[in-house]
Every structure is written in C-alpha cells, then in structure tokens.
C-alpha cells in the first residue's frame, strides 16, 4: 500500500476558473525519494501545498496509507507527513523557543520516537548550526540558517514523509550537500516507512537525490 496517493487533483487560482493543473495522479511508496520538477509557473509548490491542505483543491482526493485525508484527519496526517516550506517562518521569537515548541508538539503524536533536546542539537551540529545560540532571534538569522532550523524543527517528530519545497534554495554548495546527504539517509535508514517528495528545479540535484522524478508540466493545463 502506498504511503501517499494523489488522485485526480485539480487546482485553480482563487480568482479564476482556469485550472493550472488537473488530473494529477501518483502514489509515493515507502523508501521512495520523489522529486517534483517542471518549469517555473507549472505549479510544483502549489501542488505540494494542495497535498497538505494549505491550498484548496478544485477536485481530487489525497490518501494517507489508503485512507482519505479529510478535515478530521488532517492534523494527524500533517504530523506524519511534514511540510517544509521554501520561505522559512517562525513559530516563536527565538531559536530555542522554536525548537522547544517542536519538541512539545512532537511528543504528543510521536512519543518516544520524537527527538529530545540533545537530538535536536546533534542535528544542528550536523547542519553547521552548532554555534547558534538558543536565545538568538529567529528573524535575525540568515535565510539559509532559518531554512536549516526549520528542517530540524520538521525532523523533531521523525515523520514518515517529508514534503520539501526547495529546502536548499538559500544555501551554499557545501550546505546543500549536507542537507541532501541527511535527507537521503533519513529515508534510506527506514525504507519500510519513510519517503520524501522534494520540489527542485536543479538538474544536478535532482539526479543526486531522486529515485523517481515527476514532471508537473504533464498535468499543467493550457491557459486561456
């Protein structure tokens, strides 16, 4: 059974009846590292947001482990399929508060699987953020630092699936490689229950990280 299924997904902008994409159908199995690619404006990021209910779909169904994701089950779904947006956002004021909030939430649904404070700090070290003080304001970090803090926040709950919207877009090549290696290993360490869907437009990166590539333009509708 697939971890995630997208069935007949269609979307249009709120002020238009013209569909950007339609008839989106694909499954993601455990162990897969799926990349969404396509030209600018084809709807890669929007499709990812549709999967987690952050954009209202015109039609279609998202299934998690065979069960439809609806309003009642959306919170549980988001806890197991964690979305990481391209533009980082703070939950609270400081780095430490952001990570503490992530631990508190993760304990509610992941229990002993959730990372503790030491586990979070190990990840920060691996991502080159060991020097960041917990009292630092999140908004004072560079965008690249914010992206990495948000990734640690997302991994705190040890989700089964990561939905990643260009998570390395603001990073230098060394940091890009660190994150790629980390996330590939994250899936490969538990291939019976983990996967990711990663939006990227960089051919070299796509080749490095993917086991399967989906071109979103196959579902893009002709705009009139």
Automatic annotation (TrEMBL):
Q: What species is given as this protein's source?
A: Persicimonas caeni
Pfam families from the xrefs?
A: ABC_tran
- Species classification: Bacteria, Deltaproteobacteria, Bradymonadales, Bradymonadaceae, Persicimonas
- As recorded in UniProt, coiled-coil segments are none
Residue ranges constituting the ABC transporter domain according to the UniProt record: 4-224
**What is the official name of this protein in its record?**
ATP-binding cassette domain-containing protein
Keywords tagged on the record: ATP-binding, Nucleotide-binding, Transport
GO MF, one example: ATP binding
What GO biological process terms are annotated to this protein in UniProt? transmembrane transport
Taxonomically, the superkingdom here is Bacteria
Q: Which InterPro entries match?
A: AAA+_ATPase (IPR003593), ABC_transporter-like_ATP-bd (IPR003439), ABC_transporter-like_CS (IPR017871), ABC_transpr_CbiO/EcfA_su (IPR015856), P-loop_NTPase (IPR027417)
Provide GO CC annotations from the record.
Answer: membrane
């Amino acid at each position: 059974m697939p971890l995630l299924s997208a069935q007949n997904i269609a979307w249009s902008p709120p002020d238009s009846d013209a569909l950007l994409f339609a008839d989106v159908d694909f499954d993601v199995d455990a162990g897969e590292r799926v990349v969404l690619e396509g030209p600018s404006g084809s709807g890669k990021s929007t499709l990812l947001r549709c999967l987690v209910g952050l954009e209202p779909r015109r039609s279609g169904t998202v299934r998690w482990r065979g069960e439809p994701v609806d309003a009642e089950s959306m919170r549980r779904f988001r806890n197991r399929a964690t979305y990481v947006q391209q533009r980082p956002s703070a939950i609270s004021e400081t780095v430490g508060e952001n990570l503490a909030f992530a631990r508190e939430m993760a304990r509610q649904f992941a229990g002993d699987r959730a990372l503790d404070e030491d586990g979070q700090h190990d990840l920060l070290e691996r991502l080159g953020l060991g020097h960041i003080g917990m009292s630092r304001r999140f908004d004072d970090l560079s965008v690249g630092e914010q992206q990495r803090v948000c990734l640690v926040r997302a991994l705190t709950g040890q989700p089964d699936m990561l939905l990643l919207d260009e998570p390395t877009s603001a990073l230098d090549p060394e940091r890009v490689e660190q994150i790629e290696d980390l996330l590939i290993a994250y899936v490969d360490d538990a291939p019976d229950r983990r996967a990711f869907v990663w939006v990227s437009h960089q051919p070299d990166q796509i080749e490095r990280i993917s086991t399967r590539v989906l071109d979103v333009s196959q579902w893009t509708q002709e705009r009139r």
